[in-house]
Write a structure and sequence with these properties.
By secondary structure, the protein is of the alpha+beta class. Helix content is about 25%, strand content about 30%. Strands 1-2-3-10-4-9-8-7-6-5 form a ten-stranded mixed beta sheet, with helices on both faces.
Length: about 260
């Protein structure tokens, strides 16, 4: 069963290291697996003792709760959830004193700033890491999204000031997530962020309602996103907007620790 063990090194000169460590050991779920035995087999393969830029990540369906205890006993924590919303799921309606408009290249500076605010907030939850080149690579990525031949990014504006931003990968750009859903076509919600002083203003909800309306009208059957499970804001927000946990990433970072609390 060695094919379920993976190792990946991320290009440090890219945006990818912002979302996780540079070196990742992975264990991919298979039906009927014996997780405790696999974890014992996997442990000697891991590298990066006490290196914070390594992680061991076990990805499994969120409903596989029987596997939680062996992971907890070995020092893993459920840090990231891939959640899914099916088209037509009801969402709360809350008045917000904002308007939503498409972003343009003229908004690139503010889009980078809003996304960097989210990155800095999410560093508290164990996976996201602000790098020296995060803003540079983020600018390149967002500029590419703005170059698409369809709308993919929107701003929430209050008194002519952008206070929130959302962008989507529509189905033609979301295929990198195809292994996480059987529903077609699907989109991926790549970012929702609101300026720190505007949190709680309803700007995030206005952006999400706009995106869901567009997706439902376009015939997109499913929308996926990642969110940090320990984040006290994102978990209740997304589930109140029709998302449900689909896959959970259990993480131990560093991948190897001098003592990681294995229990018998």
């Amino acid at each position: 069963m060695s094919e379920i063990f993976t190792y990946r090194e991320t290009d440090p000169d890219s945006l990818a290291p912002t979302w996780g460590p540079l070196r990742t050991h992975g264990l991919a779920w298979q039906p009927g697996w014996n997780l405790p035995a696999l974890l014992d087999e996997w442990e000697p393969r891991l590298t990066g003792l006490d290196d914070p830029d390594t992680a061991a990540i076990v990805t499994l369906p969120s409903h596989e709760t029987a596997d939680a205890l062996p992971l907890i006993q070995r020092g893993f924590a459920p840090l990231i959830v891939i959640a899914e919303r099916l088209a037509g799921a009801p969402v709360p309606s809350r008045p917000a004193q904002v308007r939503v408009r498409p972003a343009t290249h003229a908004d690139l500076d503010v889009a980078v700033e809003l996304n960097m605010n989210t990155i800095r907030y999410d560093t508290a939850f164990g996976m996201v890491t602000e790098r020296a080149n995060s803003a540079e690579h983020l600018r390149t990525s967002l500029a590419a999204a703005l170059d698409r031949d369809h709308e993919a990014m929107w701003l929430a504006v209050r008194d002519d000031t952008p206070i929130g931003m959302l962008y989507l990968d529509m189905p033609q750009d979301a295929q990198w997530m195809e292994r996480y859903t059987d529903v077609r076509p699907f989109a991926y919600l790549g970012h929702l962020g609101v300026r720190p002083d505007a949190r709680g203003s309803g700007a995030g909800g206005a952006l999400v309602r706009h995106a869901h309306s567009l997706l439902d009208a376009s015939g997109v059957a499913s929308t996926l996103l990642h969110h940090a499970l320990p984040n006290p804001r994102s978990t209740p927000f997304w589930y109140s907007h029709g998302y449900r946990p689909s896959w959970t990433l259990w993480v131990r970072r560093p991948a190897l620790r001098t003592s990681h609390g294995v229990s018998s």
